[in-house]
Amino acid sequence: MRPPLAAALSLALANSALAAPVFVDAPALRAAPPGAITLIDARAPWRYRAGHLPGAVSAPWHAFTPSRKEGQLRPTKALEAELRRLGLRADRPVVIYD
User: Fold this and answer.
1) Three-class SS string for the chain?
2) Which of 8, 13, 42, 77 is the most buried (most CB within 10 A)?
3) Is the overall model pTM greater than 0.70, yes or no?
């Protein structure tokens, strides 16, 4: 089963040039110019507060689910609002890590 966060981001990317997930490694992240990608830390908020990659925003999986119900997503308009809040843009790749 696909994790909720990945499913939400797949919905967000459905109309972009990036149709399938792409995996990147640390050297590729370091090589990216500042602001060229959106970094999303999918770990629990306390882990994000304990330390995260520079420029990353916190978005634990439950931010995309109704009442933390695993396997379900919030309504489309709510997902779109959350993805916008996180800074997702159609012209910028997204990297999610946990």
Assistant:
1) CCCHHHHHHHHHHCCCCCCCCCCCCHHHHHHCCCCCCEEEECCCHHHHHHCCCCCCEECCHHHHCHHHCCCCCCCHHHHHHHHHHCCCCCCCCEEEEC
2) 8
3) no
Among the ranges given (15-19, 64-68, 76-80), the one the predictor scored with the smallest mean pLDDT: 15-19
Q: Please report, as a single letter, which amino acid is at residue 20.
A: A
Q: What is the CA radius of gyration of the chain?
A: 13
